[in-house]
């Protein structure tokens, strides 16, 4: 069974068609990419999958169950986590708290137990704290556990965002332009890093990217969006030589 | 100067050792309660001083509970006096009309609790518009709520209408105020240092990101509003039985503003700050009483200066170690130790 099945996904912002008839099937443990020029509707697809926007038409099925109409936190609980194009950490909170918050869907104590600090509260808090610290140490952020998130350098903030997303216990990880603002060296490191995450946490990954080098290097399959429409889909090698894709990226004359 | 800072440092470490002790809280509770009981039975504090302490306690409850919404959640609620009014009227109606005159003292905590519960129910209703509106818009919603409460109370003759309600016995004593103050501080501190509390904080930081990180933002908002208004109601019940007279005008926007001032004076998102803010504001207003009308010039002027030179308030965004859970401190400590061991073993 496919992990995620998107069919006929369409979204309009007051007449403007941001995504039209988008179809994509993602099998477990795949690493796929969505590419396209600026404003092609890539991030909108992520926002539709995660429930930030409600799709105008079409369906998104996670392991056979419909996601359209669910609230973002319910979708996250089903096993989809994401990062953001512009880093959206909880800036004033500590690195540890950033990761602990992402365990919200997994806590077993009730609000009453939290108010009085009784019952399952202590054991659960210990478990969450230890898990968060373990996760941070995997990402080599443990030394900064007490630091405010806003004080971290840019690269570490990106890493923390991925750690926070993984703390929700996802099956599917959506990375929105993970290479934004990185130099070629850092991109090579990032490629290894993404592959390593996929193996270590056994997650399926969809990533949005501009950096062709990254996308061609690690993605197993690609979908190309332009003005909301899917103009090509397939293996990276096929996409590279697709005239339509070259047209969208480079313009008509150059492609000819 | 180095001598002074060294003295300060030793004092600080002593203080941390004292508050870190297992018996600190039980001893503090018993000593505080004993002191309050002695003060109210033997009257070694005169009634005026006792009344000031009662107001300090009530203001601490109000400030800490409002800080949950305005500081921790980052919303702007100006309707706290409305919740207080609900609690005050419910508690007063119970003690004046329902409870038998003989058992007033015994049943007083029930009346206060009923006031708090009533306010919590109303808080639940106010939480619903907060799902959709934020910032200025929620401020308008809560302002409207405050006005609705006031005009409803003014138009019900059974509760005295604009003349207000009187006939309450003086049931609010120092020990009760101490008990409710400690309870409210403890419960709100517990909430803040749980994952629900972290959810409240994450809503302030970035609501959409927090929703996407599996935080059920609606649930969190309901919890925050219900807890906050519950304690506002408790404070209302205590207030009514300290003053022995209430009318709707006491709970207008000015009362809310008073609480807001205490929150921002003490600093947002800080329990220690809220307590400090409430204590300083209440006592300062009393000390400045001889100045008469000039008091209302001097106080705002001090606030303006505070906002210019220390906009985050006395303790903005920081909390005393005293209120942090031992678990967090221990985890931090253990983690440092482990890290150091690993560093030592490496070379």
Short account of what is shown:
The complex is a heterodimer of chains A (256) and B (347). With 256 residues, chain A is an alpha/beta fold. Chain A has eleven helices and ten strands.
CATH topology of chain B: ABC transporter involved in vitamin B12 uptake, BtuC
The CATH class of chain B turns out to be: Mainly Alpha
Quaternary organization: heterodimer
Taken as a percent bin, the fraction of beta residues of chain A is 15-25%
Name the structural class of chain B: mainly alpha
Average pLDDT of chain B, to the nearest integer? 89
Going by CATH, the architecture of the largest domain in chain A would be: 3-Layer(aba) Sandwich
CA-CA gap between termini of chain A: 41 Å
Low-confidence stretches of chain A: none
Any idea of the CATH topology of the largest domain in chain A? Rossmann fold
Number of domains of chain A: 2
Give the spatial strand order of the biggest sheet of chain A: 6-7-8-3-9-10
As a whole number of angstroms, the C-alpha radius of gyration of chain B is 22 Å
Overall average residue pLDDT of chain A: 90
The two chains with the largest interface, and their residue counts, are: A-B, 47 and 36 residues
Uncertain stretches of 5 or more adjacent residues of chain B: none
Class based on secondary structure composition and strand pairing of chain A? alpha/beta
Number of helices of chain B: 14
Strand order of the largest sheet of chain B: 1-2
């Amino acid at each position: 069974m496919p992990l995620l099945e998107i069919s006929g996904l369409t979204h309009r912002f007051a007449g403007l068609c941001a995504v039209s008839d988008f179809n994509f099937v993602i099998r477990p443990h795949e690493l796929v990419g969505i590419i396209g020029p600026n404003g092609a509707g890539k991030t909108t697809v992520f926002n539709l999958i995660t429930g930030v926007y409600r799709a105008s038409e079409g369906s998104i099925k996670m392991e056979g169950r419909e996601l359209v109409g669910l609230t973002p936190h319910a979708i996250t609980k089903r096993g989809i986590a994401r990062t953001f194009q512009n880093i959206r950490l909880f800036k004033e909170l500590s690195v540890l708290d950033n990761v602990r918050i992402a365990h919200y869907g997994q806590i077993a104590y009730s609000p009453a137990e939290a108010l009085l600090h009784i019952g399952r509260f202590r054991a659960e808090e210990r478990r969450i704290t230890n898990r968060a610290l373990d996760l941070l140490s995997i990402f080599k952020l443990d030394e900064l556990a007490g630091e405010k998130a806003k004080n971290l350098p840019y690269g570490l903030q990106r890493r923390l965002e991925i750690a926070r997303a993984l703390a929700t216990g996802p099956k599917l990880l959506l990375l929105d332009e993970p290479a934004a603002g990185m130099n070629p060296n850092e991109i090579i490191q990032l490629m290894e890093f993404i592959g390593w995450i996929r193996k270590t946490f056994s997650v399926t990954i969809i990533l949005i990217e501009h950096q062709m080098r990254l996308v061609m290097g690690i993605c197993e399959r690609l979908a190309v969006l332009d003005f909301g429409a899917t103009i090509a889909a397939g293996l990276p090698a096929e996409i590279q030589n697709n005239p339509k894709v070259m047209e969208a990226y480079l313009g008509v004359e150059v492609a000819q | 100067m180095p001598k002074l800072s060294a003295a300060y440092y030793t004092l600080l470490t002593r203080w941390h050792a004292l508050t870190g002790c297992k018996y600190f809280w039980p001893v503090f509770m018993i000593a505080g309660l004993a002191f309050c009981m002695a003060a109210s039975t033997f009257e070694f504090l005169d009634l005026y001083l006792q009344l000031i302490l009662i107001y300090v306690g009530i203001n601490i409850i109000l400030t800490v509970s409002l800080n949950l919404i305005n500081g921790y959640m980052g919303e702007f609620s100006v309707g706290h006096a409305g919740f207080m009014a609900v609690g005050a009227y419910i508690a007063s109606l119970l003690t004046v009309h329902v409870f038998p005159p003989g058992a007033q003292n015994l049943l007083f905590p029930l009346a206060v609790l009923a006031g708090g519960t009533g306010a919590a129910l109303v808080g639940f209703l106010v939480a619903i518009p907060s799902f959709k509106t934020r910032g200025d818009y929620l401020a308008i919603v809560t302002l409207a709520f405050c006005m609705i409460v006031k005009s409803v109370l003014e138009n019900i003759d059974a509760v005295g209408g604009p003349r207000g309600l009187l006939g309450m016995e003086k049931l609010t004593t120092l020990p009760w105020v101490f008990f409710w103050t400690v309870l409210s501080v403890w419960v709100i501190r517990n909430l803040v240092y749980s994952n629900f509390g972290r959810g409240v904080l994450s809503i302030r930081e970035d609501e959409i990101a927090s929703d996407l990180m599996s935080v059920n933002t609606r649930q969190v908002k309901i919890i925050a509003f219900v807890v906050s208004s519950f304690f506002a109601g408790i404070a209302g019940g205590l207030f009514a039985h300290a003053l022995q007279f209430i009318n709707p005008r006491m709970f207008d926007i000015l009362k809310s503003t008073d609480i807001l001032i205490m929150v921002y004076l003490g600093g947002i998102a800080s329990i220690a700050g809220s307590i400090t803010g409430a204590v300083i504001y209440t006592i300062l207003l009393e000390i400045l009483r001889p100045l008469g009308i000039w008091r209302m010039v001097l106080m705002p002027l001090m606030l303006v200066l505070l906002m210019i030179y220390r906009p985050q308030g006395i303790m903005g965004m920081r909390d005393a170690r005293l209120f942090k859970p031992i678990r967090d401190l221990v985890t931090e400590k253990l983690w440092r130790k482990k890290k150091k061991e690993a560093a030592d073993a490496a070379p």
